[in-house]
Design a protein that fits this description.
The complex is a heterodimer of chains A (about 70) and B (about 240).
Chain A (H helix, E strand, L loop, with lengths): L2 H8 L6 H23 L12 H12 L6
Chain B lengths: L2 H52 L11 H31 L8 H23 L13 H33 L1 H22 L12 H29 L6
The chains are: A mainly alpha (about 70), B mainly alpha (about 240).
Amino acid sequence: MSDAVLAGKTGPVAIPLRDILPWLVLGGVLALLALYFVGVEQGAAALFPGELVHETVHDGRHLLGFPCH
Amino acid sequence: MSPLSRLSGRVGGLLARGLIAGLVAGLLAAAFAAVVGEPSIERAIAYESAAEEASGQAREPELVSRAVQSREGLLAAGVLYGAAIGGLFGLAFALAYGRLGRLGPVATTAVLAGAGFLAIAFVPALKYPANPPAVGDPATIGIRTGLYFTFILVSVCALAVATAASRPLRRSLGSAAGSLAALGLFTALIATAWLALPAAEAPSAEFPSDLIATFRLASLGTRAVLWTALGIGFALALPRQDI
């Protein structure tokens, strides 16, 4: 039976958690890494020395609500 | 195609849709921020420069010019932030779809976008509001960042708990009273964390307060544009057939 038939009879069918989990780990790690570089790097913590990342995203960091200097 | 690869492709497709919708939403949010937020940032930096000059401090050299920071830099931050939030949104949709009562795909998207703005932007901004440059004390950046992320986490968890509790609450109290009880639970959890965590650092009394108010509104507006555009973009990008 296809999902469309199921959806028609019983409402929306949830995606099994075991199908979501690998994507959640992969996407979650990449998303948090991106958020870290926009919001934190060379501020509260630093993976790279210097100010290049901080200055590049500076205005966005302030306007997106992250704490800054 | 095997049933398994079709299923996992489904989640990957939602993640990709979220990424793209978020990227576009980040672009629009950056455009809004450039027009509405940049004047406050420039004013704050002018204030900071004047204060440094008055105290005889040497101005720190810029690696990235202010012109680049306020255009390309802002755009890069907006797009990266938007894509990251959008990817997480696609995954949250995969988790929420079919698990929020009988809500269809578009209604699930709308509820998630509203919930995301509320829990990730609005509620944390009430406790630890955004500040323009020159307000934060560089010595406390670590503790301020920790508290801000803690409050976002608390706010997201409180909303998840209240949502999970709303079904049994509505079953036992009825639809309206049960929904109100779930809202009350969310508010109570936020209030508890609010009282448990230290207050935000007050800006120095000399810093113009109207500048802080204008900046905070621009910051919240930037995030409102992002979540609205993300919700609309994701709904438009939803697959036409079954999810």
